[in-house]
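G.,

No rush on this.
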Amino acid sequence: MLLDFDSLKPHIQDALGDPRRVDNPLETFFEFDADAVRYYSRFKRAGNKLESDEQERYIINASVMKASIKLEQARTQERIKLKGSLRGIVATVVKDVENFNNTLKIKHEVTHNLPTSEKQFKKLLKECKDDLYFPLIKDPEGGRINNARKVDDKTEMIFNGLFKNQLHKPTPTEVAKSYDAFLNNYAEVYNENTGELYDPKDFKALSKGCIISYINKWENKLATHKARSGDRQVYMGNFKPHHQMDLPELAGSIISIDDRQPPFVYNTKGDRAWFYLGVDIASRAITTVVWGKTKEGIIVDFYRQMVRNYTEWGFCLPFELECESSLNSSFKDNLLRPGAMFQEVKIEANNARGKYIERINGKLRYEMEKGASGWLARPTAKSEANQLSGAKKEVIPYDILINERLLELEQYNNMPHPEENGLSKWDYFEQRQDPNLKPTNWEAILPVIGHKTTTSCNVGYIRLQSQKRAIAEDGKILTGEALIQKMRVIEGKEFDVYWLDGNDGQVLKALVYLNNRVICEVMEMPRYNRAKNERTDDSHDEALKLQSAYVASVDAFEKRQRSKIEKIAIVDNTPKTVNSNFRMPNLKRYEPREELVEVFADDEEDNLIYKPKQNNTSGWRSNF
């Protein structure tokens, strides 16, 4: 609907403004600057973004200043066109800017606060021509805010130093009292590093609440509690953010290991058994467990047991390992070097949240073990259900304690996988193995976790565990030239054999080391029955063929060596005495006779020239 403007009531005309009349020349150029909105919403003063009302004020000022620059340019061009003087243009712009507040208030219900002094406005206008938005910000570096603080950085440092560095652990209230004593010259505060003695006159009097609030600020607690905290895990739980990661889907991708003491005691002294567990993260299955009354040697036993288990199951060792540093740091240059036992190794230095197995330990404690007799609660448990009760501490005999804990681990592995309800944790581990895992690097791990035996090789056999064993390589007993090459190196010599026993106590893997170099593998020779009628299956025949080939390889080599030797003789004329000065009487002596050698003259017949007889008789008999 169209209305005649003059027919409207006066107060409505004033509110709308007459569209036929321009009250202020800035109206022609004014519009809210979109770039100013983006600039001031992103600007930070001393690391903090501007408040919304301050942003709004700067956006209006920037929009008016942008219109002012355009108005000045238009008037300058107009005066040049009319050949007039350019003096006083800024003064007219300042007047228009000052009066423009009325228009802004009526039409947009806002006002600007640009300077009305010609000198100040002219300076600001010049700066805004180079950079429109930044010169409009008051105290862009935040210096005035810091200078206005009652508690400056130096005073705050005094608070943190008194709270952190004293021999006892003072409370924030005690620090406030110490600061008051310092201001009243009852105490001296100095810098231990520089020796500077602080003057109380340089510091302001502050209320106790102000001091406590500064000490309890997050950025200050982050630093002071690190030094004051006696429990690193508690500090990390309160202040250190943790990583958020997706769990692997393939078994064998990564194994998490750690030690734990189940909450049971096996004697009246309160001693608890030590366990060392390994959890495959993808399947959540516990794949390796060892135990003992102390931590002595438990880590070596653990790695031996892991190799036994994975080898007998027919699986490759996990690709990656995550572990704690206290027991594993001594292996970082050999066993836990990437590429030795595992392809990747992550050692966490006292970081409980960095190891996934800590979650499994919590499940074992509160979901599997809590209902067992003799279970002990944590003194500092947060949940009331997990706190100490009035029940008397019960002693569980060591053997029974170990057996019950292993039964719980067995039950745990047979429980449903959290993401695959149709599979148990152990079924998931067996069926979802990573197909790209690398074979076990026996050469790298056996010298570290294997048993060492010094032995020798005699007639092609190496004695280990009171049994003669054959020379092998890559899991296969050698024959032929390959066997001979190994025997050239070790036959008749002493060397070291590093070997690992399986769960049945038999040799699982054995390697020969000579001068710190791997020579060959040692394997048990398959046996067959001496009586032919008791050779009931093909394995006896295969063993007979293998042993025959093993023996024949040495025999054939002996024949080749013997055939290379020519019939060589020697006449030794080396004198056996120095002289004949000593002679015993009445002995018959036989002196060698010198016989003349007869020289025969050549016969005349030897110089005759052969002349074949001419025979004209034909036939093969004559020719013959």
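When you get to it, here's the other one too:
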Amino acid sequence: MATTSGTNDIRIDYYPTHEHEGIKFRRGHALPFGATTVPNGVNFSISSSAATSCTLVLFDRGAAQPFAEIPFPDEFRVGDVYCMTVFDLDVERLEYGYRMDGPFAPELGHRFNKNIILSDPYARSLGGRDTWLAQPNWDDIYPYRSRLAFEDFDWENDHPLEYPIEDLVIYEMHVRAFTQHPTAKVKNSGTFSAIKSKIKYLKELGVNCIELMPIYEYDEWENSKPNPVTGEMLVNFWGYSTVNFFSPKAGYAATGKFGMQVDELKTVIKELHKNGIEVILDVVFNHTAEGDHRGHTISFRGIDNKTYYMLTPEGYYFNFSGTGNTLNCNNPVVRNMVLDCLRYWAADYHIDGFRFDLAAILGRAQDGSPLSNPPLLESLAYDPILAKCKLIAEAWDAGGLYQVGTFPAYGRWAEWNGKYRDSVRKFLKGDEGLVGEMAQRIQGSPDLYYYRGPTASINFIACHDGFTLYDLFSYNEKHNEANGENNNDGGNDNHSWNCGWEGETDDIEINFLRHKQIKNALSILFVSQGVPMLLMGDEMGRTKLGNNNTYCHDNELNWLDWSLLKKNKHLFDFAQSMIKFRKAHPVLRSSTHFTHSDYVGSGYPDISFHGTRAWQMDWSANNRSFAFMLCGEHAKQGAIKDDMIYVAMNMYWEALSFELPALSRDRKWHVYANTDMPAAEQVSTLGKEPLVQHQDHIIAGARSIIILVGK
């Protein structure tokens, strides 16, 4: 609204109508939620379905006590929303929170306590825990302090890269672990900014997408305790316990102590995009850091417990996450918050995609039962702001809901393919009865994703959760004693094999076999249809000494030891070469499933399976070897025609002779990779592959893989 005085228009809503303790304010705008700058002031908006009153609490940055507490007048309430515009605040120094009053009636789902100052669920930045592992002030009346973030970052011409998902090579990374080890030799180790120093390395390896483990604000001191072996403090290192979904973690920023974590993260994303690398965030919308009824009240519980959490009829917390509580994602209020959050990261941080931790929870109703048409998953799939973002589900939860292959996809969702991981591990180990299943996995799992295409399958053999690739072939059992849980934590179904000795050894033959098995795994990963994901450090033989659940270690169990790059250069070279091979051959990156027919008249089907005899596949249960051939003339990237590719996989403990399919049109077989050769001879230069000596057969050594190119 405006009035006219002479030639000047004056907006009435720029000026206060109320005053309290010297602070001037007026009724605010209900949307957007959170704190946003407006002319002359800041608009605050927060909702609660059951609170009886709300008070805005204002602090100077770092102050022990607030400088003002302003109750929202009744007339400032719109439905369940409290909104107020406060004038003449120093927004650069401002910290704010809320007190919510209402019933404390856990049996009815309410846990209000007006004595607790609560963080804003929509805060764009949090203060109070600005430096990694700095000792908290346990007497602070308000430990997680909501702050404003400002839209003054110069993105220049940056935008999300929008690569076709089939062209991605994903690298799963923990921000702190990636550069914290002294061998990283970077400035500001363990921070967002340090990632910039390693972009050259990522490009050299060949990855074009990094997937960051949680970077939202979380409390690394949560559930901290001494290591029973060393006495070192065990902490929440991985960060799967969110305090606020909109705020990047200050402790991951070199500038966090100055409150500049937002700009630091944006700078890194812009630099990654300049170098052709997408950024996917691992997001944790299944639970929060508030835990169960014994946990701390930080934000959601004190604002609207019954809305934000799934509760039993008695008022206790459903625990489908395994961490004490479960976010009530299909309540419309919570669903809108999740949407607002992801839209914010996509629009304001230029994020390229999201991986959803324990995503099966997102499809549960408010009583915990699985929904056939989950509104949140549908909303994310069809949201216009997220239209170009990759959406990836970890399609299971801790409550037993396992949806790999059946996750509600709406034509948009991909999945971490846990069945791919398990099948490949068991096949590499030499288990029987895996050939038929492996044939499905290397095709992009059409048995799971027939209607969705191979790009629904995010293929991985190792991830943060479980053994590294090196440990997969070095340990038969998990060794988690250092976690302080009597080795009871972590999975027991590792499908690992120590190659004859548990742990480190100087035995040359065992170490050669372990390295061969790592290269076998990398070979399978990068010749499989679908989207490959590599765990940070697997390309250089990273070990966690048999610990398959290092969630609590801020030490060398998690930190990437960059000296391994020199020690195991042959592993890096092999991984780099396999990524180059994948990128060079579009037939390895199909967006549609194979038809097992020759629909282009090449004389060969798009894919064919072979045994030790060409064109005669052995599907029997005791078979541990097979081969497949891809016809490059069926490659689907425009008019590009590719070479023939033949891959022989022998997981038997003796060498086998494979009869080669005959080639037409003067083509001949050339060898690109052979994992049974000495390290220096295992892989060829792309485009300069040597001719196979005998064009009618090859010998695949025990537990080895051979990749041929027909050209």
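The radius of gyration is 28 Å. The domain at 594-710 is CATH 2.60.40.1180 (Immunoglobulin-like).

Enjoy the weekend,
O.
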